[in-house]
Amino acid sequence: MDFELKTLNRTRICSEKCDALLVLIPQNLSSDDDPLSALAALAIKSGDFEAKPGKLLSAYRTPGIAATRILLVGAGDGSPKNVRIAVNAALGALKNSNAQRAVLCLSALNNLPPDAVRTAVVACSDATYVYTTTKSKASPAKLQRIVIAVNDAANARAGFDKGTALVKGIELAKEWANRPANHATPTLLAVAAKDLGKLRNIKVEVLGPKEVAKLGMGSFMAVAQGTAEPLRFIVLHYEGAAKAVAPVVLVGKGITFDSGGISMKPAHEMDEMKFDMCGAASVLGTFRALAELQPALNVVGLIPASENMTGGRAVKPGDVVTSMSGQMIEILNTDAEGRLVLCDALTYAERFKPKAVIDIATLTGACVVALGGVRSALFSTDEPLAQALAQAGESSLDLCWRMPLDEEYAEGLKTNFADVANIAGKAAGAVTAAKFLQRFAASFPWAHLDIAGTAWKGGAAKGATGRPVSLLLDYLLSQVPLAVPGKAPTRAKPVKRSTPVSRTRA
Ligand code: BES
Ligand code: MN
Ligand code: ZN
Fold first, then answer.
1. Catalytic site residue 414?
2. How confident is residue 483, by pLDDT bands cut at 50, 70 and 90?
3. What is the CATH number of the domain that holds 18?
4. Torsion angle in degrees (nearest 10) through CA of 124, 125, 126, 127
5. Residue 178 lies inside a defined structural domain of this protein
6. For the segment 287-312, what is each residue's pLDDT rounded down to a tens digit?
7. Among 263, 321, 440, 472, which is disulfide-ready with 335 (CB 3.0 to 4.6 Å)?
8. Is ligand 1 within 6 A of the CB of residue 432?
9. What are the beta bridge partners of residue 207?
10. Does the beta carbon of 336 sit less than 6 angstroms from any atom of ligand 1?
11. Span from the CA of 129 to the centroid of ligand 3 (angstroms)
């Protein structure tokens, strides 16, 4: 999808030729004497239209308006949340039409908040995205181009740029998450990461089985030993600030298929375990967006990528392995593999002396039970970090909810045969998983996002959501130091590259 931002007030927009004109109408619509406002006012007065979020009224070849199709869309109070509902409804209604070029008019919304423009752009992408990669007769979306019309493009520019950067990140995350496991192996994920290494200020390193063994990642290796697909440990660097600036580290669970291993999962909906790398996909997507926006920050991305399979070489319940931290882990359930790959990545993160470490993982079915698909679970040992992430969730409409980490929850992880077991009892499964990870995150401010319920949808609309790329980007942008003249820039300095953009060690 191509996006363009244009200054077009309600009068000008009446003469704008396009296949479809989607006009967001707020509840407090101010009167204006253009044909569009007259149409909306008349429809409201006659009771045929209401400005409630998502309400629609369509018209065709209307006198005084150049667009072929016109859709009035209720936008309530014009808040980002209602803008999202409105855009979804409008583009949903356009789905089976032949429209190729649409104009989304935000000009009737008063005091348009910048986040509403960002939200509109992201919602346009969400409503029109189609996965095509593994279909032989791919029929791409008809709609090719959306013009976002506002009263003052200069004012809306920042929100628009953030929106288009996010769309690139979210669509990349969806693409890799949606690909079947045989089209998204650890090796292929590493190739996708390497591709990001071609973008400005991004460097990518890929470690293979040998390097990972040398690092002593015995826990990660235990998960990977049951599959013929070689593991990859992917390290991304976004360098938008001076070297001395401590980075934020994002750790994404990259289980490209989770069969459960010897503690095998039931067959029902097991295909959905191709989505068990959505944490990894969200890290890739966030880096894609960072490359677009070039904020003055340093960010490291870590992705332990492997399949979790069963077989003669697979790790067995009761096996004890030594993690990179030296802690010995009794693997009581091979299906609790996410924490086993993440713990070694958390230990690896220590070397960056990070400002904060955030891991993102489709970690527990229990999280789906607790919070469903609305909010991701947020765990953190650090108040400012927790608050910044919760705030980023609200501002980006990519919501999360704080969960507890009381020490009592760690009781069930005790074992007679190692330092810690990888599962506890049935109760509070999302929390006990977080308690396990916490043991490996003692040396930096740490947060854990369990995205098991939010990263993809099942059923007829089965597919990745691209969450929580929006949340992560808003958090990272909130960490950019404010511009002081002559001091820290809010944008990365342009760099000339003399060194190769990426290195491989696989
Ligand atoms: N990838 C799953 C978690 C998951 C399950 C996410 C269903 C979304 C939907 C994870 O590796 C897993 O299997 N967790 C187990 C942990 C249990 C064995 C303690 C679970 O949640 O059942
Ligand atoms: Mn599992
Ligand atoms: Zn898993």
1. no
2. confident
3. 3.40.220.10
4. 50
5. yes
6. 999 999 999 999 999 999 999 999 99
7. 263
8. no
9. 233, 505
10. yes
11. 26
Q: Is residue 505 part of a domain?
A: no
Q: Angle CA(93)–CA(96)–CA(97) in degrees, nearest 5?
A: 90
Q: What is the DSSP string of 380-425?
A: ES-HHHHHHHHHHHHHHT--EEE----GGGGGGG--SSSSEES---
Residue after which a domain boundary falls, among 100, 121, 153? 153
Amino acid identity of residue 425, one-letter, is G
Helices and strands: H and E segment counts in the chain: 14, 21
Is residue 297 within 8 A of residue 473, CB to CB? The reply is no
288 is catalytic: no
Q: Distance between CA atoms of 250 and 386, rounded to whole angstroms?
A: 15
Q: Are 104 and 1 in contact (CB under 8 A)?
A: no
Cβ 302 vs Cβ 345: under 8 Å: yes
- How far is it, in rounded angstroms, from Cα 341 to Cα 335? 12
Q: What is the pTM assigned to this prediction?
A: 0.96
| C-alpha to C-alpha distance for 87 and 185, rounded to whole angstroms | 35
Same domain, 422 and 317: yes
Is the Cα torsion angle 371, 290, 142, 19 positive or negative in sign? positive
Domain that holds residue 59: 2-153
Alpha helix locations (H) across 108-251? Answer: 114-128, 153-178, 186-196, 209-215, 218-224
- Say how far apart CA 429 and CA 408 lie, in whole Å: 13
Location of structure tokens 């293979």: 208
446 SS3 class = strand
pLDDT digits (tens, 9 = 90+) for 329-373: 999 999 999 999 999 999 999 999 999 999 999 999 999 999 999
Ligand 1 touching residue 450 (CB < 6 A): no
